């Protein structure tokens, strides 16, 4: 049965876009999963409860050695982005070094009550995830990165919940992320003084607000817990980078604040200074480079902290050596590279213990004598364990330490068992956890064996005195149990890190199938003219297939597949399959043969797609793109030679080679700029924006020359636009005005980033700064939108080619404004490259379009971007805004990231409207979407295969998410190009 149906090209492209987006959605449902949180509260445990766990017999009884009395007051100071090398003495002279001398002074003068640790964050190093980890002791999941700008209440058990049960007077000041995450704790307006955390250009307002409330609070007696989260250091890093005079100023301020707080610290007060994450050399964070991971933890009190401060030197040495062995075992098991840390951050990392941030939770629970949160995975820090009556009796002291380790181990054990029972995930079955649980059982067996020895129990009761050899035997046994408990705790962290992302393999495979079908349908639709669909036949075919697959699907669901698929998801899948069947059952009245160029360009795109399965190619993708451009340029030259109708001679060969050669020169010249990935060091050397400054005569001369070059480019571009548009002066004048704003913004940015002139910017009147930072960028946004709408809806006044040129030039100014100065110049020059590629006949159109597509990919890298979270241009979110606007910032960051691709997509409009036939337009638009749909399909397969690969979350997953962004963007661009080319 036939129903006459002849969908337009726009309809077909819209359907394909929906199919592609739905396939991506289903795939991501299986890939980007959060761990399941358990709504169970932690409770107080005794050290030898259920001893031994491996036996169902009556529990063995051992005496519990109580800890010292809890602190009456605790003050937690969080300095956002406090990298560890900011806190220790250094022989180097960078602006961020040696600015916190109070820490080293206390370590030298009060070593018994001061402890300094390297505080290692768990990636991703975004503030919201770090605050959650610091209070829950849980590990972050990959998808939580996107929640950093939309913090929601923590539902699982956390330390602050238990602290609130014990302490009544809790105060908070600073980063409002804490209030969003823990509204049930910070719920009293007269004790909660939070500030907006996303005014990144403001270095002082949040810190000054904190101090205005902190000093009166410290002078009063009406507080028990105070939390202050300072943001100035982090904002200075984002704005200026770590090596800047403003960073020295902010760290000096923090040193003064710490000194003044320490004057209030007595024997009943615990002072904790920490950073939530580190800071990259550029001043950013969010990734997992060593600079971003290594933060600071400093703990101080008026009374001794831990057995390492034992008054007897011999005992002191023993406990310190024991704790060093514990830290060394943890670092070795977790793979902390001390040598790399020392080399990258230029301090002796072996001199300070490395502590995972999750370890703070059980440690604070011990110090404040509150229950450990139920979902904690951290291991207690041994240096801070101190019995209520420390003595020279090693067995007594060790029994207290191993008892606290067992409380920690019991809590983690209960969590694993409950998680396994509630989630029924195979990875958390008793069989899979067996090797980890063995450490816990072995430790319990050692302690139960000790408890069964009469000489051990009578010795603890002070009834008998043991010979030294038997004491050493007992000490060795307790130490062995201690390290077994620790191996269980660290093994659990390591295991959960490796398998925490619980992939729904069924959803991922279903998404791959849908993405593959979308590619097939795209190729079918491109090569045929659709006249009618066998609607009834397709429907009759789908019904039996649906019922036949039901038992198979149910069986897979029972084995953990498709567990994240909802009823509406299945309806969407069925509809997608139905649409694919409709497209595959079309009647072809006319077939459009594909050209050789189409096949060559698509094959080159496929070659590039297959490289996405190699971590080396992904890391060095910026270099591989240049090789692709070189190969395509050679093909362009060959096509120019073959299309010469009157035979070849030297003049015609030169003419054929002119444009490809000029294009290659542009690619080579622009390749000197970019941004290095962490994995590319030390083999990556790019020209950075730092050489543009007013710090010296030579640098100022270079910067003035750079600004003059920008002005010349804008002047010549305005002439090109005027020549392309004709008599209408509105777009021409708008471009000149936008270009003037871009040039002014470049001067301002170079001025702000220069060390010698940065302080002058503070003296500029606030109204002038507001105009330069907020109103001028908004003027560019408004003009860009207005001119775009003007030329699109004034079709009678402009040809399609003129529309393309106006859009290209006006959008280049807005996209340039969102980049750093050097990248801005490249974006402003990009219309010239489009003009170069527009020179040619129809025979080379597909090659030139493909060159333009890969040139957009090249622009992505040379404008300072990489497929990593660290390289995301967060500063673009504040161009035209003095405050964080969630949706506006998201749009600006996306525009800044995709600037090169947007230029290339608008360039397609110029080339297609200038010389393409209707058939060429159709094949070109399908080529555009296939050049992104095919890599997305293959990348999804690679990520599925490599989902347990060591580099999945660091390399493959960010590249896949970026590919999805390109895929959806290319489909939307194809739809808009079809509308404008119609």
UniProtKB/TrEMBL annotation:
Annotated GO biological processes are:
GPI anchor biosynthetic process
| Pathway given in the UniProt record | Glycolipid biosynthesis; glycosylphosphatidylinositol-anchor biosynthesis
Main localization category: endoplasmic reticulum
Indicate the transmembrane segments per the record: 505-524, 536-558, 570-589, 601-620, 697-721, 775-793, 805-833, 886-912, 924-945
Q: Which InterPro entries match?
A: Alkaline_phosphatase_core_sf, Phosphodiest/P_Trfase, PIG-O_N, PIGG/GPI7_C, PIGO/GPI13
Its annotated compartments are: Endoplasmic reticulum membrane
**Residues of the GPI ethanolamine phosphate transferase 2 C-terminal domain:** 759-977
The molecular function terms of the Gene Ontology recorded here are: mannose-ethanolamine phosphotransferase activity
Which regions form coiled coils? none
- Which Gene Ontology terms of cellular component type are present? endoplasmic reticulum membrane
Q: Which domain of life is it from?
A: Eukaryota
State the membrane topology. Answer: Multi-pass membrane protein
Q: Which UniProt keywords apply?
A: Endoplasmic reticulum, Glycoprotein, GPI-anchor biosynthesis, Membrane, Transferase, Transmembrane, Transmembrane helix
UniProt family annotation = Belongs to the PIGG/PIGN/PIGO family. PIGO subfamily.
- Return the protein name: GPI ethanolamine phosphate transferase 2 C-terminal domain-containing protein
Taxonomic source organism: Rhizopus azygosporus (Rhizopus microsporus var. azygosporus)
């Amino acid at each position: 049965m036939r129903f006459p149906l002849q969908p337009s090209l726009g309809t077909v492209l819209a359907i394909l876009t929906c199919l592609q987006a739905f396939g991506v959605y289903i795939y991501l449902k299986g890939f980007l999963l959060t761990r399941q949180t358990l709504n169970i509260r932690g409770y107080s445990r005794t050290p030898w409860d259920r001893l031994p766990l491996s036996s169902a017999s009556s529990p063995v009884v051992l005496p519990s050695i109580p800890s010292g009395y809890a602190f009456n007051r605790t003050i937690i100071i969080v300095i956002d982005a406090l990298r560890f090398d900011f806190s220790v003495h250094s022989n180097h002279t960078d602006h961020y070094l040696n600015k916190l001398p109070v820490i080293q002074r206390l370590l030298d003068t009060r070593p018994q009550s001061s402890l300094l640790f390297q505080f290692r964050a768990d990636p991703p190093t975004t503030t919201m995830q770090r605050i959650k980890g610091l209070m829950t002791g849980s590990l972050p999941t990959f998808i939580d990165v996107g929640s950093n700008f939309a913090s929601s209440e923590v539902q699982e058990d956390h330390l602050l919940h238990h602290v609130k049960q014990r302490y009544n007077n809790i105060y908070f000041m600073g980063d409002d992320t804490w209030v969003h995450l823990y509204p049930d704790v910070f719920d009293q307006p007269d004790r909660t003084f939070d500030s907006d955390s996303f005014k990144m250009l403001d270095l002082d307002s949040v810190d000054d607000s904190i101090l205005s409330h902190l000093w009166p609070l410290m002078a009063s007696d009406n507080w028990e817990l105070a939390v202050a989260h300072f943001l100035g250091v982090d904002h200075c890093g984002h704005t200026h980078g770590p090596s800047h005079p403003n960073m020295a100023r902010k760290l000096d301020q923090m040193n003064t604040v710490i000194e003044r707080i320490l004057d209030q610290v007595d024997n009943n007060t615990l002072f904790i200074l920490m950073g939530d994450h580190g800071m990259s050399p550029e001043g950013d964070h969010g990734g997992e480079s060593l600079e971003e991971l290594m933060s600071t933890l400093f703990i101080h009190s008026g009374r001794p902290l831990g057995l390492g401060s034992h008054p007897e030197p011999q005992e002191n040495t023993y406990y310190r050596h024991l704790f060093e062995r514990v830290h060394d075992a943890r670092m070795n098991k977790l793979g902390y590279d001390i040598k790399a840390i020392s080399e990258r951050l230029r301090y002796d990392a072996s001199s300070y213990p490395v502590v995972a941030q999750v370890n703070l939770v059980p440690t604070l629970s011990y110090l404040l004598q509150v229950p450990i949160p139920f979902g904690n995975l951290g291991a207690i820090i041994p240096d801070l364990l101190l019995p209520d009556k420390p003595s020279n009796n090693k067995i007594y002291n060790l029994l207290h330490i191993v008892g606290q380790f067992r409380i920690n181990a019991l809590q983690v054990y209960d969590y694993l068992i409950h998680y396994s029972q509630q989630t029924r995930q195979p990875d958390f079955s008793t069989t899979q956890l067996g090797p980890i649980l063995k450490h816990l059982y072995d430790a319990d067996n050692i302690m139960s064996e000790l408890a069964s020895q009469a000489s051990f129990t009578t010795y603890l009761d002070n009834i008998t005195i043991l010979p030294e050899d038997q004491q050493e035997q007992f000490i060795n046994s307790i130490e062995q149990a201690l390290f077994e408990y620790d191996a269980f705790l660290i093994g659990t962290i390591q295991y959960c890190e490796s398998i925490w992302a619980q992939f729904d393999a069924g959803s991922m495979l279903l998404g791959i199938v849908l993405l593959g079908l979308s590619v097939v349908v795209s190729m079918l639709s491109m090569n045929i003219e659709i006249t009618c669909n066998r609607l009834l036949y397709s429907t009759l075919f789908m019904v039996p297939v649906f019922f036949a697959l039901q038992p198979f699907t149910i069986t897979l669901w029972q084995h953990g597949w498709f567990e994240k698929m909802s009823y509406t998801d299945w309806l969407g899948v069925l509809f997608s399959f139905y649409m694919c069947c409709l497209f595959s059952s079309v009647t072809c009245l006319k077939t459009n043969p594909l050209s050789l160029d189409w096949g060559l360009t698509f094959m080159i795109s496929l070659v590039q797609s297959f490289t996405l399965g190699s971590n080396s190619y992904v890391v060095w993708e910026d270099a591989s793109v240049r090789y692709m451009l070189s190969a395509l340029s050679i093909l362009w030259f060959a096509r120019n030679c073959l299309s010469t109708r009157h035979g070849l001679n030297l003049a015609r060969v030169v003419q054929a080679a002119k444009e490809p050669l000029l294009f290659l020169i542009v690619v080579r010249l622009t390749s000197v700029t970019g941004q290095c990935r962490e994995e590319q060091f030390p083999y990556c050397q790019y020209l950075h924006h730092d050489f543009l400054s007013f710090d010296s005569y030579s640098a100022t001369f270079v910067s003035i020359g750079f600004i003059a070059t920008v002005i010349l480019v804008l002047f010549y571009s305005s002439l090109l636009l005027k020549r392309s548009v004709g008599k209408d002066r509105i777009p021409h004048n708008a471009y000149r005005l936008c270009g003037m704003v871009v040039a002014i913004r470049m001067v301002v940015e170079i001025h702000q980033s220069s060390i010698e002139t940065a302080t002058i910017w503070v003296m500029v009147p606030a109204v002038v700064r507001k105009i330069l930072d907020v109103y001028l960028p908004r003027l560019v946004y408004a003009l860009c939108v207005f001119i775009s709408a003007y030329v699109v809806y004034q079709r009678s006044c402009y040809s399609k080619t003129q529309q393309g040129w106006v859009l290209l030039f006006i959008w280049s100014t807005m996209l340039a404004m969102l980049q750093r100065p050097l990248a801005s110049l490249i974006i402003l020059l990009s219309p010239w490259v489009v003009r170069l590629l527009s020179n040619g006949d129809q025979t080379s159109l597909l090659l030139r379009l493909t060159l333009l597509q890969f040139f957009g990919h090249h622009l992505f890298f040379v404008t300072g971007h990489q497929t990593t979270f660290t390289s995301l241009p967060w500063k673009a979110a504040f161009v035209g805004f003095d405050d964080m606007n969630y949706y506006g910032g998201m749009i600006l960051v996306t525009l800044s990231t995709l600037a090169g691709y947007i230029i290339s997509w608008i360039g397609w409009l110029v080339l297609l409207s200038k010389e393409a036939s209707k058939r060429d337009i159709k094949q070109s638009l399908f080529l555009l979407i296939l050049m992104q749909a095919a890599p997305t399909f293959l990348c999804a397969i690679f990520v599925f295969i490599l989902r347990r690969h060591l580099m999945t979350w660091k390399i493959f997953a960010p590249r896949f998410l970026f590919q999805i962004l390109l895929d959806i963007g290319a489909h939307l661009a194809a739809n808009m190009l079809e509308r404008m080319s119609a």
